[in-house]
Backbone:
């Protein structure tokens, strides 16, 4: 298990640098490499076929970011992930513009889901990040 730390680094006029840890998050390996089919109310995420279905309709998610982000969030429904955690798990590279990148991918996934359902599987947790929820009914 890895730990992510958000650190505030300040430099005073004399050039002295101080750091303050603002938050720590334990991260777990995402289910991105898992073969387990994830099933929720009408939604089926198949990591083996790399496909997402809603009541039999295929959702055309891009493999690189949209599919991997949805699998990451859906692997632990109800758990809130920060944008940084999502970025590090899916992009696997040094962050450039984390907020913008994650926001765009989440928006794309939501738009594609809205074409087949009114359920909001991905919810925003203001000031923190995003979580996946199973939404029964319609």
Residues:
């Amino acid at each position: 298990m890895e730990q992510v730390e958000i650190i505030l680094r300040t430099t005073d006029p004399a050039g002295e640098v101080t750091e303050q840890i603002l938050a720590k998050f334990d991260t777990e390996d995402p289910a991105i490499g898992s073969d387990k089919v994830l099933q929720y109310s009408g939604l089926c995420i198949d990591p083996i076929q790399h496909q997402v279905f809603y009541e039999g309709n295929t959702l055309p998610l891009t493999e690189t970011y949209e599919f991997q982000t949805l699998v990451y969030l859906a692997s632990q429904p109800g758990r809130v992930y920060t944008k940084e955690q999502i970025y590090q798990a899916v992009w696997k590279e040094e962050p450039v513009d984390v907020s913008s990148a994650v926001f765009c991918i989440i928006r794309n996934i939501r738009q594609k889901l809205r074409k087949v359902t009114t359920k909001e599987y991905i919810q925003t947790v203001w000031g923190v990040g995003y979580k996946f929820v199973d939404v029964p009914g319609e």
Observations:
- The two ends are 37 Å apart (CA to CA).
- The chain has three helices and nine strands.
- Helices lie at 63-74, 83-90, 98-114.
- Strands lie at 2-11, 17-27, 38-40, 43-46, 51-54, 57-59, 80-82, 122-125, 129-132.
